[in-house]
Amino acid sequence: MHKSKFLNIVLATAVLVLTILLATKNDLPDMRKKNSPSASEGAQTVVSDSAYIPFKKKSLGVRAELYPKPALVIGSYDSEGKPNIMTAAWIGICNSNPLSIAVSMRPATYSYGNVTETGFFTVNIPSSDMVRYVDYAGRFSGRDVDKFKETGLTPVKAEFVNAPYIKEFPIVIECEVTAFHELGSHRQFIGKVIDVKVDEAILDANGKVDVALLNPLIYAGGNYYETGRFIAEVGESLHEIDGQPFVPDYRQKYVNETLEVIHNRKSVRHFTDHPVSKQQIELLLRAGMAAPSAVNRQPWAFYVVTKRETLDALGEQLPYAKMLLQAQAAIVVCGDMEKAGNLKEQGYWVQDCSAATQNILLAAESIGLGAVWTAAYPYEDRSKVVTETLNLPEKHVPFNVIPIGYPTGEDIPKDKWKAENIVWQEHLNE
Ligand SMILES: Cc1cc2nc3c(=O)[nH]c(=O)nc-3n(C[C@H](O)[C@H](O)[C@H](O)COP(=O)(O)O)c2cc1C
After folding, report:
1. Does residue 77 have its Cβ closer than 6 Å to ligand 1?
2. Which of 60, 74, 138, 265 is the most exposed place for a label (fewest CB within 10 A)?
């Protein structure tokens, strides 16, 4: 073959390979975006919502890259009965019956000597807002400082074991050492669980820990992260849509969690029968009451409906709120005409109740619940139904009914971005 012809072929092949590579690279983020329950076109490709491009692996050697690692705090007494706490990430459940927890400690830690001597420890599980205590307990030794005194945390003698627990932490687990193993750098203590105590504030309606309310800490790569957003129930992948395992996974990534919640909020009209807890509702109401209002009048009242008969009665009578028949709870946002006072005529209360409603809807999305705004105001017939069913006083004008529950995953967010809705008044900036 002629030399220049051969060079041309080589060059053309190289350009073709480069073009294909670039095209494939550009495709990857789009593939991730297509990850919706009904996207049967994604059937052949395993797509990930995480911020990584599969499947290019690099060996890192022997490193503790196990995720997620917990960041928990171990409580123990020293030989003089002084309470101490130490942070541990090398920890986890290691047996179901008897329920046991394994925690590994370096001999250099004060806690190691304490637990070896007493044979007991507590595991204290923090919420993410307690990260400063977790960090402190992991950076100073009880040999040098009194960590309870320095942090202001309160030691409580455990009920069943000879170890202290931290009063302010939402979950404490009392353990008795039944075995230990010398592993090298660490001694692994096996602690049989004797009792678990949980703050009522983080229990759901079934008396189980609501992880979204606990919001536990993750330790990873030298940093702390928070977690706790509900994503799916165990076993949901057993359902099939278009022949594919289905776990609701419609989330798109945004630059921060606030934007993610705003964009993932959707009107949820299909609920599972999983109950909603009083704590969850209170969290939504706190968000509602944090809304701005004209002259800070806060001209609202929130009626919480959880009784099945009342939810059904409202659902049967309100033509656009049939989803109440499935919902586990509802918040009825009312305008309070006494609080609105002289601003009543201008209708500011409508704007104020709208802001509160949007906050409630966003808060629901943020903890994995679903909700939908169903109007009462300005319809006389619907307002009458709500007023009569809930026996509202005259000063409380029903604004809307917000059915609440765990979403089935059928409702997905809409992309409502429309550039034509914007009028850029550029000349104003000139
Ligand atoms: C996030 C984090 C995780 C830790 N995990 C462990 C662990 O699993 N085992 C351990 O021996 N030390 C661990 N440490 C270090 C101990 O908490 C630290 O040495 C502490 O000062 C020991 O306290 P003490 O001497 O009062 O017992 C961890 C520290 C941090 C900050």
Report:
1. no
2. 60
- The preferred substitution site among 69, 76, 86, 224 for testing ligand 1, maximizing ligand atoms within 8 Å of CB, is 86
CATH (domain of 198) = 2.30.110.10
Distance CA 195, CA 209 (A): 15
Structural domain including 134 reads 69-220
Residues 126-137 pLDDT 10s: 999 999 999 999
Give me the CATH number covering residue 372. 3.40.109.10
Specify the pTM: 0.66
Inter-CA distances, 253 with 3, 29, 32, Å: 51, 11, 10
Find out whether the beta carbon of 83 lies less than 6 Å from any atom of ligand 1: no
Over residues 134-182, the pLDDT tens digits come to 999 999 999 999 999 999 999 999 999 999 999 999 999 999 999 999 9
Instruction: Find where tokens 């690692």 sit.
Output: 69
Contact between 114 and 162 (Cβ < 8 Å) = no
- Does some domain include residue 64? no
Which CA distances in Å does 321 have to 32, 293, 338, 363, 370? 34, 26, 28, 20, 14
| Angle between helices 348-366 and 257-264 in degrees, nearest 10 | 110
